[in-house]
Amino acid sequence: MTQSVVVQVGQCGNQIGCCFWDLALREHAAVNKKGIYDEAISSFFRNVDTRVVGDGGSISKGKICSLKARAVLIDMEEGVVNEILQGPLRDVFDSKQLITDISGSGNNWAVGHKVFGSLYQEKILEKLRKSAEHCDCLQCFFIIHSMGGGTGSGLGTFLLKVLEDEFPEVYRFVTSIYPSGEDDVITSPYNSILAMKELNEHADCVLPIDNQSLFDIISKIDVMVNSGKLGAAIKPKSLVTSSTGVFKKRQEKPFDAMNNIVANLLLNLTSSARFEGSLNMDLNEISMNLVPFPQLHYLVSSLTPLYTLADVNIPPRRLDQMFSDAFSKDHQLIRADPRHSLYLACALMVRGNVQISDLRRNIERLKPSLQFVSWNQEGWKTSLCSVPPVGHSHSLLALANNTCVKPTFVELKERFIRLYKKKAHLHHYLQIEGMEESCFSEAVSSLSALIQEYNQLDATKSMPVEDLPRLNVAV
Amino acid sequence: MVLRLPIAHFFEGVCFGLFLSMSIVTVQLGQCGNQIGFEVFDALFNDSHCPRGLCSKKENEAYQASCKERFFSEEENGVPLARAVLVDMEPKVINQTLSKAARSGRWKYGQHSCFCQKQGSGNNWAYGHEESIMNLIRKEVEKCDSLSGFFIIMSMAGGTGSGLGAFVTQNLQDQYSSALKMNQIIWPYGTGEVIVQNYNSILTLSHLYRSSDALLVHENDAVHKICAKLMNIKQISFCDINQVLAHQLGSVFQPTYSGEGSFHYRRNPLGDLMENLVPHPEFKMLGVRNIPQMSENSLAYSTFTWAGLLKHLRQMLISNAKMEEGIDWQVRPPLSGLPPLGKMSVNREIHFNTSIANLVILRGKDAHSADVGAFKDPALYTSWLEPVHAFNVWKTQRAFRKYERSAALVSNSQSLVKPLDRIVGKAWNMFASRAYLHQYTKFGIEEEDFLDSFTLLEQVIASYCNL
């Protein structure tokens, strides 16, 4: 079995990362009753004998001693990482896995990418190499960051190039939080576009997510919970929304609940690789099946049931409803409507007591209302993992390579142009060594080219599907 | 490779009217191959240990011994060890398979018969080439007194089973040129399990066509329908599908008499199958049909006659039905004496399924009295083989599992042409758009390799169509 390393960059990246590690521990605790360090746990955790000083304390088998996350935490401010290190998860992280600075990137991609990139390149390499050495067979880097800020966006994407050069065989999965329309960071369009170019060129797979969609999902859960019809019995074992294990009012910390959704996404994405099932799906199969052309590697994700994240007992919806929900625009983690756009490929990753016939029945049922590109009319990739998420009988993660990402990119480009036309705040960027106007123009061209690819695909949507003439052979 | 005749057993066999069977080494590849492999060995073992089998005790013992020699070797403590090599690119499924077998307490896999890497092949056909697998196979071969050949179980859609399956078969061809190879290939559901399944399928089939001796095909769609319509299973799992598959394979591979009414069981299962069914290397695709097939509950209330079973089986063959429900009785063979109705077109709906060769295997009560004359009708066959060469029947008194009478039909016919054509068509459409090709070229499979595969398969399709 393989291992993955999570690299969490910037404030957003680290907050989400922290949620992820909390949930991962809970999940493995629920599944692994005997406390044996098995291959499933080893995918994300090392087993360390803390009595041994220094680095030689890794234990590969036997009982769990002390679990250490396979993670590298990077932030150019100290606040978030310090909070993590003082919180209940402090023992999960190795103090040698951190890279922090004090001053922050000032919401400036150039500072994150160019200044801190060059400043910390060696240190970053060293930490990454160390984490790779601890792995028997490293398969994947999961990078978590936001696009709109400075550190996550700039340094996070700087990392990608380093990873590509240093570990070319290891997959780079990037979870990117895109800024919403009403983002409070004025320069977020600059940061996002500059980061997009790096994602285009150096990421294997990107899972774009936006805060607004997460917020809408949380609001929906709130409505369901507070409608009073269902009662508010707290589930004893479900994944709670705050790391202290106490049910907090959502109004106080909305980001916690939102971060949990993303954390659940990563858990479900890797469940079929970690746990057994009748139709396994390893991480490299995601890229293989969902990325038909190297540039088109943006996957829209949806998670059902949503109330996986609530602490309340909502009666389980019918299995088929779960599948229907996955294709509704209300369940996507980015504002997108896959149903009315063109599918290039779709993956359905099911967990729990679901069998192949359930899966097939639902694909047959939903297929007629979805449009697939002509050369991939049966573009479905499926997996069945026997182990359900904690506290629930089943769940579904859908990953769609669909032209419905295009509007997000188009809007991003428009916001960028509005700012760039006026040269607003540009000097903050240009004064950084290594930054020129050409960086911006190249970034925009890169995005425009990507949008154009999606446009071309969309143009084929209404065309009739014809079979191409086949090879003629003499018999 | 060692091929010794078991001289001691020979005399023992003569005394008890029993010739020990030659052995088959099974190679289980990937998740599919391993999951199915377990069910196959389990079905074979359970059937051979059915208490009476509706025959004499001596016959039953001979059957058991023959089955054992074919598929199991023995450990010191007497627990039968499956003659199998388990291969996968990552450990989860192999571990599960090993423990499932061990848990049963009846038989198990050899602990060291597994090859496993750490990382899955990612559905990439080009991935994963290892020498150690051949070493494991060699160890298993050395345990056989006499080797009939290899049975390789694999899927076509994934990466490990398909790509590695082709690689292993090629190696077997090189290293064991006198042993036979039959590949059990699972064709994926038409509506995707894996998006690149059509690419993987054409690459696999074209390579196997060059190195394998026979391709025994099972389509997930067909087996799924059997589960739904005949077995009445509500929530069908892969386990259900694999058990139906195992049942079909068991009905083909369990021992059969070599002569009328004697205790001689056939010694060379693969050799006999190939001899009967693959007269020409251009035509290697075999399918299995089984009748009756039903849930064990229904079985208790059903009785069948050989006449009824054979009538349905014949119509299943000529109308290309995969199960005994929903058969199209309108389809008739062309009238003998008249010229053939014209070349098969993959587009025509109602079509008569022409065969190259057929083998009917009858197991159970009064099997010797069953009349298979209808299968000898020359109209069923292509013109370049006499029915006496194209058709064979094996009859065995010993019943299979709980079926008082059961019949299996292994045929080399046009029935796989349409599914094959569909796969090639979809792969071609995708290839024309160049989608996913970068994933293959990354690992050394170039466009020319794809084109070679397309060419070979179009040829196969055309050949079958022209029967």
Labels describing this entry:
heterodimer; A: 475 residues; alpha/beta; Rossmann fold; Helix Hairpins; 2 domains; five-stranded mixed beta sheet; 14 helices; 13 strands; B: 467 residues; ten-stranded mixed beta sheet; two-stranded antiparallel sheet; 16 helices; 12 strands; globular; disordered N terminus; Tubulin/FtsZ_2-layer-sand-dom (chain A)
Brief overview:
The complex is a heterodimer of chains A (475) and B (467). By secondary structure, chain A is α/β, with parallel strands linked by helices.
Annotate the secondary structure layout:
The complex is a heterodimer of chains A (475) and B (467).
Chain A: E1 3-9, H1 10-31, H2 39-42, E2 45-47, E3 67-69, E4 71-75, H3 79-86, E5 98-100, H4 109-133, E6 138-146, H5 151-166, E7 171-178, H6 188-202, E8 205-210, H7 211-226, H8 254-274, H9 283-290, E9 300-304, H10 319-326, E10 342-352, H11 356-366, E11 371-372, E12 380-385, E13 394-402, H12 406-421, H13 426-430, H14 437-459
Parallel strand pairs in A: 1-4, 1-6, 4-5, 6-7, 7-8, 10-11, 10-12
Antiparallel strand pairs in A: 2-3, 9-13, 10-13
Helix pairs in contact in A: 1-3, 1-5, 1-8, 4-5, 5-6, 6-12, 6-14, 7-8, 12-14
Chain B: H1 7-16, E1 23-29, H2 30-48, H3 57-71, E2 72-74, E3 80-82, E4 84-88, H4 91-104, E5 114-116, H5 132-142, E6 147-155, H6 160-175, E7 180-187, H7 197-211, E8 214-219, H8 220-230, H9 238-253, H10 269-277, E9 285-291, H11 296-299, H12 306-318, E10 355-364, H13 387-390, E11 391-396, E12 405-413, H14 417-432, H15 437-441, H16 447-465
Parallel strand pairs in B: 1-4, 1-6, 4-5, 6-7, 7-8, 8-9, 10-11
Antiparallel strand pairs in B: 2-3, 9-12, 10-12
